[in-house]
Amino acid sequence: MTRKLVLRAFCSAAALSVGLVSFASAETLRLSTLKQPGSDGAAAAQHFADLVSEKTNGELTVKVYPGSQLGDWTEVYEQVIEGAVDIAMQPLATSSDKRLAITWFPYAFTDYDSAKTALSPGGSVFEIVKEVIGEQNLTPLAVYGAGMGGAGFPTEVTDPTDFDAKHDLKVRVWPGGTTHKVLLENLGYNTASVPFAELYTAMQTGVVDGQIGVTATITLENFADVTKTWIQYNDHFESDFIFMNSDRFADLSPEFQDAVRQAAEQVADEQFTAVQAADEASLQTMRDQGVTVVTFDNAQLQALGDRVRDQVWPDIKDELGDETYQALRSAVNAD
Question: Is the model's pTM score more than 0.70?
Fold first, then answer.
């Protein structure tokens, strides 16, 4: 009896030991996103976490912190660099390196297909970003698209399809938005710099006559009652990068690295498919609300892109630096 009890105790201890080893070997990554709880973006972040867990049989988990719970996105950017946060799904901090302005450089892409090609791993813009943030101890995993950009106005716009027309309208650009300031001036507008937090009031009171730098969806969420005209310029592709601290990524096993990459790329691919439909739905909502929506066909967008690359890019190339600028021109065959 004593021997049986000893053997049973030994087996129980051994089983507990295995369980503790398994528990100790499980890893958890912290992911920050500024997307609010309940939003599509927050759901996508959780989908990424679920995929990682699924692909690793629960041995690697991701804890999602939505709504900037770990800090303002600029603070989180630094935290990921330092390793205090493992992963983020958010914009890149262009203040950390001007070359990152390539992610919203006007007409680096003009449609969803060209945006997906350039922003997917192996694509021209993705690889440039990979090199830049690699120097910051960051590893890009994928890009979560949020839609094509355009311009909204609280009034009618005369001759919106005539790119040589002169408009007696002052359009808001964000502080430091040199690229779009030059773009708008080329398209016949005046400009003024206004912080996003002050933009609604500025449009409501007539300080500015329009805004650029967001999507139709964002406009509906923030400026629906002060928007009477929307011009779908496709001037930039709004997106968040999913990126990780490089040291933390290197510490993962090759199998876990593959799981993290594959999960991020799957979320990105699904979103590239969904975002075009979401943009079209937002444009239809605008029409239903009485907003004049101006769109362009592929030939018009190609002509607009060619015009901007020829006339605007030379004046804003310093925003990227010569090497990155030349790489972008080569990638879009602008030479």
Answer: yes
